[in-house]
Specification:
Elements lengths: L13 E10 L7 E10 L12 E15 L5 E6 L18 E7 L3 E35 L5 E44 L5 E4 L9 E4 L3 E3 L6 E10 L13 H7 L4 E3 L2 E4 L2 E4 L4 E2 L19 E7 L7 E4 L1 E9 L10 E5 L6 E3 L8 E2 L16 E4 L3 E5 L3 E3 L11 E3 L4 E7 L4 E3 L5 E2 L4 E4 L5 E5 L7 E11 L14 E3 L9 E11 L1 E10 L5 H4 L13 E2 L41 E8 L15 E4 L6 E4 L2 E2 L7 E2 L11 E2 L9 H14 L10 H10 L2 E2 L2
Helix pairs in contact: 3-4
Length: 694
């Protein structure tokens, strides 16, 4: 059809309904519809006779209904639906997943049905023939010279056309517009969704409906004229007048009612507008069923993992939209798509938890301090120690923050790290870590063992730990400790949890040995022959194990205390050390025993032991001098001093140690000016003459 001319061109066989509408202005009041059915066929058809009528129709009543408000809503929550382990309003970690669920009307529609009312006006001619009869009288000669009256029958037919106007009202229903929309998709946006997800309908289809717009009226045809039964009109002696009658009932009978047919609409198996062909008045339409809220599985998208690239953020807003698309088969198309915002979607807080409740092993069995510091873990030089870095512990209160609480958080860790303020080795001593180096520890390793080098200074230290969440910023390495929260990052502005453990590095005193006893009965135990300085290298040790608990190789006979049975030579089995004889001993240290004022104080105690060995009683021991009697050893009056010469006979101090010590003191202590004595001379002096106070 040409829009401007209305010219219709047929291209193939078929039937089409063409509707023409006319308004005299945008608001009426005249609004005229007319429809015509055009059939294209290869066979000639009889052209129906146009009814002798003038028909006018116009819209009278409109029936409109619109459900274009979907009232959408949506939620974004933690998987799985119905048993959400986290409250996303309070917090959910990265690597966990979210689901989106949108609810809305299953379809939208706008409809307008128009009640077309009209009148067909017919001019009906009713012909009626009147047979008029009368008797005409004439005076005529009677043949006898007289007159007579002669009656002559007369008749005449007169056909009178009566013209009547007959009107036939009608009304039927047209679908002026029908727009039905189905769901195409929904979009949910949130920081945690990085940044959005699309929800496509599942197990869903728009409403089924079928419509046709063939509704129209059918004006009946009437004959050009009708003939009423004739009537005899008798007269007297003159022609009677032609009667004048009202024959309209005949005209009315001659004109049938206008037949009407609605448009047709079936919606979701319900006939909303039925289209039987009836006289005068077509059935009134029903209503399109209201839409319903979709099932919860229609727009549902689970398993949307929160990327571990997202840093912690609180109360991130959510937005959304749902889109509807115009279905096919609509009448008088409008917008092909309708978009609606989804209000009131909940916020989401991203909070990836880490905890830090680290420990350092306390090597108390090897702690030789007389008064151990119970507030610090003891680390012993040249011994292994273990750090424990669990991934479990208390975070936020699980009652207020579901999914957190006291549990294992390893899933959310990027790495664990420990930093020592002193040098350490790996357990196998193959890897050296300089002090103040952050050492990576695999997340799923609970305990890690290190070794403490011998050169670490004794004293108190703080070992630092930090556990880094998987979503920590890439520049976390440059962060100060203030960017880590102690124990747990309960404040989501932190991505690191820190801990600090107090330790004490402690040296060692070990390998105590008695190298000589001045009692002559013991001379050949330590010397190869009497008066010799050649040692037998026999010593009496504290036990049979070395510094780390491994067997030293000596027999239990050669352990202290020295007692009857300790003498190895034949005939001396029951010999003990007589009182009053000194003995020489040696031991080793590890730690800070290299300063000019460093030293070791040995404070002896004395006990009386009964003959059967079952009773041991602490006692005081006294001695006498030429100036005073009964001086208690260890008292303020005990001022007698004894000298120790390291290079003394049978002390068995290796010469290399004497030389190294002399060299160190000469070069480091600053007590000897190089101009006073050469290094070589000081070594000889140190070896042969230096005495030490015991």
């Amino acid at each position: 059809m040409e829009p401007k001319t209305g010219k219709i061109t047929a291209y193939q066989n078929g039937t089409a309904v063409v509707t023409a509408k006319w308004k005299n202005s945008a608001d009426g009041p005249y609004y005229i519809y007319e429809s015509v059915t055009i059939t294209v066929t290869d066979k000639p058809t009889d052209i129906p006779k146009e009814p002798d009528a003038a028909c006018m129709e116009s819209p009278a009543v409109e029936m409109t209904k619109e459900r274009m408000a979907p009232n959408p809503s949506a939620v974004i929550k933690a998987d799985q639906r119905g048993s959400e382990p986290f409250d996303v309003l309070k917090g959910i970690p990265t690597s966990e997943s979210l689901y989106g669920n949108v609810f809305s009307m299953n379809y939208l529609f706008k409809s307008k049905f128009v009640n077309m009312k009209g009148t067909c006006t017919y001019t009906v001619i009713v012909n009626k023939t009147y047979n008029k009869t009368w008797t005409r009288e004439e005076t005529v000669s009677d043949g006898n010279g007289g007159t007579t009256t002669e009656r002559i029958p007369m008749s005449r037919q007169v056909t009178v056309p009566y013209s009547y106007t007959v009107k036939r009202d009608f009304d039927y229903w047209k679908i002026d517009s029908l727009l039905v929309y189905e769901i195409t998709n929904a979009i949910l946006k949130n920081y945690a969704l990085n940044p959005e997800i699309e929800l496509l309908p599942a197990d869903y289809s728009g409403p089924s409906y079928a419509a046709s717009t063939n509704g129209r009226y059918y004006a009946p045809n009437v004959p050009a004229s009708i003939t009423a039964p004739s009537q005899t009109v008798p007269g007297t002696t003159t022609e009677p007048a032609t009667p004048s009658e009202n024959l309209k009932p005949l005209a009315e009978q001659a004109v049938a009612e206008v037949q009407v047919e609605n448009d047709y609409l079936k919606f979701k198996n319900t006939v909303v507008i039925n289209n039987p062909k009836v006289e005068k008045t077509a059935p009134r339409p029903g209503e399109i069923p209201d839409p319903e809220v979709i099932h919860r599985d229609v727009l549902y998208s689970p398993d949307n993992e929160i990327p571990n690239s997202l840093v912690n953020k609180k109360n991130q807003p959510s937005t959304g939209e749902i889109n509807y698309e115009l279905m096919s088969g609509n009448i008088n198309d409008d917008n092909a798509e309708e978009k609606f915002d989804i209000p009131g979607i909940n916020t989401v807080t991203v909070h990836t938890p880490v905890v830090n409740y680290s420990l350092v092993s306390d090597d108390q069995p090897h702690n030789q301090k007389t008064v151990p510091n119970m507030n610090r873990s003891a680390l012993i030089l040249e011994r292994p120690f273990t750090v424990r870095m669990p991934t479990s512990g208390q975070h936020l209160d699980v009652g207020s923050y579901p999914g957190y609480g006291n549990r294992d958080y390893a899933k959310y860790y990027r790495i664990k790290q420990v930093r020592f303020p002193f040098d350490v080795y790996s357990e196998d001593r193959k890897q050296f870590y300089p002090r103040n180096t952050w050492i990576d520890v695999p997340v799923y390793v609970l305990d890690t063992t290190f070794c403490l080098p011998v050169w670490v200074d004794e004293g108190g230290y703080q070992v630092q730990f930090r556990n880094i969440a998987e979503n920590a910023p890439d520049d976390f390495e440059s962060m100060s400790r203030s960017n880590a929260q102690p124990d747990a990052n309960t404040d989501l502005t932190y991505h690191l949890a820190s801990d600090e453990v107090s330790v004490e590095v402690i040296g060692r005193l070990y390998d105590f040995e008695i190298t000589d006893i001045a009692d002559y009965n013991w001379e050949l135990v330590f010397c190869r022959y009497k008066g010799s300085i050649a040692p037998t290298w026999i010593s009496y040790w504290t036990g049979t194990k070395n510094i780390d608990g491994d067997k030293r190789g000596n027999f239990s006979q050669f352990t202290v205390p020295i007692r009857p049975g300790s003498h190895p030579l034949q005939g001396y089995k029951n010999v003990a050390v007589k009182t009053g004889y000194h003995f020489k001993f040696d031991f080793k240290t590890k730690g800070n025993m290299f300063g000019p004022r460093d030293g070791i104080r040995l404070t002896p105690t004395f006990d009386f032991v009964s003959k059967d060995g079952r009773t041991r009683v602490p006692v005081d021991l006294y001695y006498s001098t030429n100036q005073r009697n009964f001086i208690r050893i260890g008292s303020a009056e005990d001022q007698v001093k004894r000298f120790v010469i390291l290079n003394d006979r049978m002390r068995q101090v290796p010469g290399v140690q004497l030389r190294d010590t002399a060299m160190y003191k000469y070069n480091r202590y600053g007590e000897i000016h190089p101009g006073m004595m050469s290094e070589q001379a000081y070594q000889e002096y140190y070896r042969d003459r230096v005495k030490f106070w015991p």
